[in-house]
């Protein structure tokens, strides 16, 4: 089975690795986005998928959009089928038709829930307790194609979007491999998507801003969904303070929204219902630290109120 593999971020690496290790698979090329600036110095850096492909000696195509020229290159690769995991660009119909058995997408949601670029992040922000992954035949529409297979996973108490995506990227890799084989050998039974459709657009920095007038549970959901990217944050002294996971504290109900206090070994912040406890924070220009260490460093101040 000859496969064109398209993917970009680290969550797309486990599926590439598993496919490349299979004796019945030949990766004819890896399609990924072009090198992007990383870090404070904005150093141009290959994507995690590009780095994995280079490590394995696989040919790499770098492009941020699938245009007519790239489509012709894809047509000439001789791939039987294409696999997509978070490539980061839409694939037009001409390119879909350039591969005999089409393109199979591994998407980290239980379709038709959370179609779009940030399914896990949006699911956690909405308070979903069940997440998962789906494979489907790619169409020109956004995550609309018929489903080939699914797997589910429970959200754990300490989960963030980062931990869920990392876990799903590993546990769903066999689902993609099995779906690709089923399509090529003709045993696949694609089923139309059924149920309520929800959308998961890419998160912006503003999506990570905590609204302290929200109930404590909603605050906790927002923080876990925005962690690690784009990052959950609040404003203090006209500067951003990034927040790691927070813990609802229904036993503390005497703090107004945004009021932050240190009580014993707990840093507590009021919300629209009861308080939440901060775990770790990152002040602007500094490293992440324990919330208690940060709060004790500000112990001379009478009151801290987040905006």
From TrEMBL:
Catalytic activity: L-methionyl-tRNA(fMet) + (6R)-10-formyltetrahydrofolate = N-formyl-L-methionyl-tRNA(fMet) + (6S)-5,6,7,8-tetrahydrofolate + H(+)
Residue ranges occupied by any Formyl transferase N-terminal domain in the UniProt entry: 3-173
CDD domains per record: FMT_core_Met-tRNA-FMT_N, Met_tRNA_FMT_C
InterPro entries the record matches: Fmt (IPR005794), Formyl_trans_C (IPR005793), Formyl_transf_N (IPR002376), Formyl_transf_N_sf (IPR036477), Formyl_transferase-like_C_sf (IPR011034), Met-tRNA-FMT_C (IPR044135), Met-tRNA-FMT_N (IPR041711)
Lineage top rank: taxon: Bacteria
Keyword Protein biosynthesis in record: yes
Transmembrane segments: none
Keyword vocabulary terms for this entry: Protein biosynthesis, Transferase
Domain Formyl transferase C-terminal: 202-298
Classification via Pfam families: Formyl_trans_C, Formyl_trans_N
EC number per UniProt: 2.1.2.9
Enzyme class, UniProt record, top EC level: transferase
Family: Belongs to the Fmt family.
Function: Attaches a formyl group to the free amino group of methionyl-tRNA(fMet). The formyl group appears to play a dual role in the initiator identity of N-formylmethionyl-tRNA by promoting its recognition by IF2 and preventing the misappropriation of this tRNA by the elongation apparatus.
HAMAP family listed in its UniProt record: Formyl_trans (MF_00182)
Name listed for the protein in its UniProt record: Methionyl-tRNA formyltransferase
Record lineage: Bacteria, Bacillati, Actinomycetota, Actinomycetes, Micrococcales
């Amino acid at each position: 089975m000859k496969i064109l593999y398209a993917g970009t971020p680290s969550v797309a690496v486990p599926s590439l690795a598993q496919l490349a290790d299979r004796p019945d698979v030949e990766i004819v090329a890896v399609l990924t986005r072009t090198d992007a600036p990383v870090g404070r110095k904005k150093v141009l850096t290959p994507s995690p998928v590009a780095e994995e492909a280079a490590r394995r000696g696989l040919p790499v195509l770098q492009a941020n959009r699938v245009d007519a020229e790239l489509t012709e290159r894809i047509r000439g690769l001789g791939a039987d089928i294409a696999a997509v995991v978070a490539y980061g660009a839409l694939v037009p119909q001409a390119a879909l038709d350039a591969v005999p058995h089409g393109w199979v997408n591994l998407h980290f949601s239980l379709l038709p829930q959370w179609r779009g670029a940030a399914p896990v992040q949006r699911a956690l922000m909405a308070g979903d307790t069940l997440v998962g992954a789906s494979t489907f035949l790619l169409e020109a529409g956004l995550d609309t194609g018929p489903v080939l297979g699914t797997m589910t996973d429970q959200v754990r108490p300490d989960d963030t979007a980062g931990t869920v995506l990392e876990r799903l990227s590993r546990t769903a890799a066999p689902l993609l491999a099995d779906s690709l084989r089923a399509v090529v050998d003709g045993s696949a039974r694609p089923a139309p998507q059924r149920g309520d459709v929800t959308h998961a657009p890419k998160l912006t920095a503003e999506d990570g801003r905590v609204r302290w007038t929200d109930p404590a549970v909603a605050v906790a959901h927002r923080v876990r969904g925005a962690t690690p990217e784009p990052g959950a944050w609040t404003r203090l002294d006209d500067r951003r303070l990034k927040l790691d996971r927070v813990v609802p504290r229904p036993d503390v109900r005497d703090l107004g929204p945004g009021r932050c206090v240190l009580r014993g070994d707990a840093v507590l912040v009021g919300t629209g219902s009861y308080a939440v406890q901060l775990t770790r924070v990152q002040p602007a220009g500094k490293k992440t630290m324990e919330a208690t260490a940060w709060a004790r460093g500000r112990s001379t101040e009478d009151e801290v109120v987040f905006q």
